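Final report, results section. Input specification for complex C-07:
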Amino acid sequence: MNSQPRLVAAGYAGVFGLLVLLLLSSSLWLGDSPLHMQFEARLMPPSAEHWLGTDALGRELWARTLAGLALSFGVGLSAALLGTLIALSLASLAMLSPILDALVSLLIDTLLSVPHLILLLLIAFALGGGTQAVIIAVALTHWPSLARLLRAELLSLRNSPYVAISKGFGKRQGFIVWYHLLPHVLPHCLVGALLLFPHAILHEAALTFLGVGLDPTQPAIGVLLADAMRYLTGGYWWLGVFPGLGLLLMVLAIERFASMLRKAL
Amino acid sequence: MRLTAWLASRLLRLLLVLLSVAAVSFGLMMLSPIDPVDAYLGPQMAQVSPEQRTLIAERWGFNAPASVQFHHWLQQLLSGELGWSHIYNQPVSDVINQRFQRSFFLLLSAWLLSLILGVVLGIAAGSKEGSLLDRLISGYAYITASTPTFWLAMLALLLFSVTLGWTPTCCAGPTGVLSQEVTLLTQLHHLLLPTLTLALLGVATITLHTRAKMAAFMRSDTALHAFAQGASRFDIAWRHGLRHASLPAVTLAFASLGELFGGSLLVEQVFAYPGLGQATVAAGLRSDVPLLLAIALFTALFVSVGNLIADGLYQWADPRIARDRTNE
Amino acid sequence: MLTIDRLTLQLPYYPRWWRREWTTCIESLSLHLPPGEVHAVVGASGAGKSLLAYAIMGLLPQAARVAGELRFQGEDLTPARQRQLRGHQLALIPQSLNALDPLARSQHQVRWAAQRAGFGRSAAHQRADELLSRYQLSHASTHYPHELSGGMARRVLIAMAQVSNARLVIADEPSVGLDPNQRDRVLAALKAIALEGKAVMLITHDLRHALTIADRVSVIRQGQALETAPAQAFQGQGEQLMSCYARDLWQALPDNAFSTHPFHPTHQEPALA
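Structure output:
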């Protein structure tokens, strides 16, 4: 490879940072334009005036797409963080006793054996829909794979010679966890959260698309695309193409950044 | 001898996991804010008086403690009685049976296609890391791995069905024709686009996994030694690479049946294909609790058996493990 | 047969984010290998011995920078020529036992090597059986590498290097990790190859055992050839050796009372066994 690997990494980090900044600030300068209806400009194709076209109520698609991405980003990030927190807590809990370990393992196996989307449907059904329900549902479906990884990592650390020596010196359990185990596991958590992130976004969008996720009054990507399904055969292609393309680009950027970070750590 | 013991312990574990799946999904249903009587009645709930509601609740034991209800449900389950699906007005077992038959061909062909394509592309990309071919293939795989399934299905529908008109826009057969009268060719025509869409997404995972295995192999001492014998890259990929990359790829394919099924939910929804995936979505949206529970259990069985096969493959096919077994 | 003239090899590394620098692994190294001899190349780990083997075979990483000349049987050894000769005229017995494909049986490994050397399918099969029996491996022909002992695996590697009657055989640390009995068998096999009129380059850190079969010894340190001497020069106190380092190496051997040179207190090389 001729290009400098670390320079490429810095490039990815820059693109990722810009994306975050753009999405975080979008609610400030978008104002209410994602919801603003123009009755004289319904279902307009993309043009200089309407960049990505308008929907059936004359709302600007570019504003709705951007707002949808910001929403997906927020929901995905919250879900990934919550999922990581659950994974870390339960993996640590499993370290305390063999019975707890068996229970946590059984829970992990159980949740991993139901297809994600079906588990999401079940949890969304149990919680009754809405933003909070989606965040919890996505977090609850995504923690097991990370928890399995962390549990294996913690187990091998606990059996490592230096922890045994530390125990031999009479260090307390709390000291060992704080100074020997956590510093090793935290980078895994960070990378794990970042790797969960794109999955969380895609699953949120899928759930919303199916109609059991975010509220249909919100400009979520899943809502936009479900809406577009109804106009697809009418030739209103822009409704279906742009929101999905935006989501794809955002997920791709996050995914590339996450796997680059995993390689670096 | 060891294989039998291994299989017995894994089957026991499978049973435990399924029981646990049943408990968790039943618990989730109990948590739901949706009134079980409403869920039972479906669209007819407006026509029922409060007295009748109490009667229904008593008949089905909706007022009993959760543990009693769970016990009752498990007993029914074990006697093969999965309950009544109010949205299809059929026993749940019949719904699953019919729907899975329709989905099975879609799932199987998408699975096989993604496995074969994934291995071929992964080996081609990984055998020369950083080459133009590698960058093209892995770029493609990264993009499809980040693509929302349902959006890809929508694009395919938009391009091939709406714009080009090559494939039908919906369903498993032409509307207004009884399903018995649809010819095999028409059925395949309707299955073509859903299958390709579903396969395309599976290809990405298998390609990236195979590519990583292959690239690591090309950096190994074994590959360097093969180069020292004057082997070409193609020779190495064919003689050694295929052995090293195919077992992990098949294993991964078996272990990701859950994702395949999740994908089929979305693809069937977009193409309005009346398979098990579409029934799952309908059950979730219209609160068909018995159907939803049965599908959760059924797919958990499906995924667990896939995982079991994935683990078993290494025991059976990898000489490093298989020989040790026969020697003991 | 093989002449190496002022070979210099550099590999890149990245000390900072944006800078690329070169580290010199082999510096202006010259050697000459005549046919019928075992030529030992002796040096500590990290002296650049394996890289020398890869440079001759043309197996260096793409980023490597090479200067100097390699000549094989009077012809320039260009990358294209190396590709032609690899497995036919040039053979490598690699250092690592991982060089055997863990998923292939011994017979297949040798047969593939024969096919790569230009044998047809059935001829390659025959050739593989012939070589396996020459190295007393017939009973292990259906074994996978993890079922072979270290010495057997090493002999499979030697058999693979022998399929084509290569004129030059490079053996990279062939006696590492073997018990004395197996080690002597492997070294005897290499000597036998040289006696057939081929050139054998024996790369090793083990001067003592190299001397049992070597005709000539080159001592390498930090990528430079300090001295090339006939094996007979390593005797007594090493008076016939020109460089201090070679003399130190010789005197540091267990049979020579483990003496390290008193005038070189800074010298960092580990004692060589």
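The mean pLDDT of chain B is 87. The longest helix of chain B spans residues 92-126. This concludes the modelling results for the funded period.
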